[in-house]
Amino acid sequence: MSAPLAAQRFSAAPATKPFSAPPAPAGRHAAAEPDDEPYFDFELGQATTQPIPHMAAPASPTALWFAFGAGIAGLMGSFMPWVKINFFGGMSSSGVDGTDGWYSVLLGAAIAALAIWLVRNPGRHLALSLLAMLCTIGLTGLGVYEVIHLSGDIPESEFAGTVSVGIGLWLIIAAGVVGTGAMVRVLRGRSGSAGQP
């Protein structure tokens, strides 16, 4: 074997270019430092990192459905008797026979509309949830006010018969209490989910 041929066979292999990672995909920045945390890209077989967004937990649909039912009950109570008079066979007056009954109609409709909107659009809608709770509190307050007002003005006499508070007002108070409890649960659930990482 000749010396030039032996030198050629046992000569060191030419230096190769160090391995470089494939280019970063569009929309991503290439790693600037070697100690960046890796993530795995299945398309490129490359490790890199991506933040995981924390989505807002939706409100409890059960509590919102209770609030919706409370709004419907408030609407129904507005058209039911608020005052019942047991005289000459019985008479009654509904809430919509006066001005205050239409306030309960508006409050009940607002509660039902806000609740169904929150069910159909899950997410963190704090302002609308607070508005719905204010409406339920207003409905409760209106019912309690009317009961106190009517109880103080109800005349009773052995000739005139007995005047009593009708079922419509009791239904409005119950609807307001249930709706308020439901919206408190909705807001507490959202505040708890907001505190989680």
Span from first to last CA? 74 Å
- The helix/strand class is mainly alpha
Q: Helix count, per DSSP?
A: 5
**Can you summarize the main beta sheet?**
3 strands, antiparallel
Helix share bin: 40-55%
- Gyration radius (Cα, Å) is 36 Å
What is the average per-residue confidence, as pLDDT, rounded to a whole number? 76
Give a short overview.
This protein has 197 residues and is mostly helical.
Task: Describe it.
Helix 2 (61-78) runs antiparallel to helix 5 (167-195), helix 3 runs antiparallel to helix 4 (126-153) and helix 4 (126-153) runs antiparallel to helix 5. The chain has helices at residues 3-9, 61-78, 99-120, 126-153, 167-195; strands spanning 81-86, 91-94, 162-165. The chain is elongated, with a radius of gyration of 36 Å. It has a domain at 61-191. It has a 3-stranded antiparallel sheet. By secondary structure, it is mainly alpha-helical.
Summarize this structure as a short list of keywords or feature phrases.
elongated; 5 helices; 7% strand; 197 residues; mainly alpha; 3-stranded antiparallel sheet
Task: Give the topology, please.
Blueprint: H1 3-9, H2 61-78, E1 81-86, E2 91-94, H3 99-120, H4 126-153, E3 162-165, H5 167-195
Helix pairs in contact: 2-3, 2-5, 3-4, 4-5
